[in-house]
Design brief:
Length: 354
């Protein structure tokens, strides 16, 4: 115990090292002596003992799909800062989108005494009853970007708003043959961004929306020996060429995320197609690379900071105040126009498919 050698009361040491908010005045000099002594003795608190005594371990678990995602990485960084500022520590685990793995990991974190959980991911094809049964835990839990179909505390982005704005923007520029592309994702049917596309296409009477939604390929993503994933440019290029031959009047392409949109920009360049003179391109997410692409990419902005901060606030509210009432917070997205979108081309079809 830190109570020898520098004449400081044990309760004062506890207040300083545990960062308690008790009304005990401790001078800067005394705090410095306590921290210096702790450092010299290589002291660290017994979190398990503290948790048993206080009923809290000051830890939070965050479970998500994969670390190889720029948006998720940003959310982890923001969440870690929020947790640290609140005097907590963060456990992070990646479940690769597997329900069994998420349930197993969440239960393990609960057994280790976490005070709460934030879960990120979607599980299409699983019944509401099964999800509610398997994703119910005896600690405060908040879901992020999951659109969980049972009463709970959750926060997600309404991608439909931004996509509708993108279609409005393109329509105002004269585009009437607007298509949307995606890579394989088994939860895409439930994604709000695709619902927004369908609703916008229907509202303008631009044909059957589902005929304008295209899957580029189920196997366009590759992982190298270092675990880095990337889209295969040759495959995307072939699929884009096939799409444009099937729909030669296409003048605008929305992509389900920015990574795909950046590859589409490159593939169109290889095909001799100018953006936005021949085809306008829109992404989704607003990752940093969209500002330096050629041309800079018009995209739908996801407020990732607001999503994770709101989720953290909901969790802390339940941990601190035992407020467990279901609450659903939907944060709208927003379209921003850059140089990858422009007025519709004057020719009906592209030269290479004419």
């Amino acid at each position: 115990m830190l109570r020898y050698g520098f004449g400081v009361d044990r309760s004062v040491v506890s207040v300083v090292l545990n960062r308690k908010s008790k009304p005990i005045e401790v001078s800067k000099a005394t705090r410095k002596r306590i921290f210096q002594a702790a450092k010299e003795m290589n002291y660290s608190p017994n979190l398990l003992a503290r948790g048993l005594r206080k009923g809290k371990t000051q830890t939070i678990g965050f479970l998500a799909g994969t670390p190889k995602h720029e948006i998720l990485s940003a959310q982890v960084m923001i969440l870690d800062q929020l947790v640290d500022k609140a005097g907590y520590r963060l456990y992070i685990s990646y479940t690769m989108g597997e329900l069994d793995r998420m349930v197993e990991t969440a239960n393990e974190l609960v057994s280790r005494g976490v005070d709460g959980l934030i879960l990120r991911g979607a599980f299409p094809g699983v019944s509401t009853e099964q999800l509610q049964s398997r994703l119910s835990f005896p600690v405060p839990t908040v879901f992020v970007e999951s659109q969980v179909p049972f009463p709970c505390r959750q926060v997600y982005q309404d991608g439909a708003v931004g996509v509708k704005q993108a279609v409005d923007h393109l329509y105002a520029l004269g585009h009437r043959h607007i298509h949307m592309v995606r890579t394989y994702w088994n939860g895409w049917e439930r994604a709000l961004r695709f619902r927004g596309f369908r609703e916008a296409i229907d509202s303008y009477g631009l044909g059957k929306a589902d005929e304008k939604l295209h899957e580029i390929d189920a196997w366009t993503c590759h992982m190298d020996k270092n675990g880095h994933t990337s889209l295969d440019i040759d495959t995307v290029s072939r699929r884009m060429k096939g799409l444009l031959k099937s729909y030669p009047d296409c003048t605008a392409i929305l992509c389900h995320d920015d990574e795909l949109a950046l590859v589409v920009l490159l593939c169109l360049s290889h095909l001799g197609i100018k953006v936005p003179e021949d085809i306008s391109v829109v992404g989704f997410d607003n990752i940093p690379a969209t500002l330096t692409s050629h041309p800079p990419l018009s995209t739908v902005v996801k407020s990732i900071g607001n999503v994770i901060r709101t989720a953290f606030d909901l969790l802390m509210e339940e941990i601190d105040n035992k407020q467990a009432d279901p609450q659903e917070v939907v944060i709208p997205s927003e379209f921003i126009s850059r140089q990858s979108t422009g007025p519709v081309r004057t020719t009906k079809v592209l030269d290479f498919v004419a």
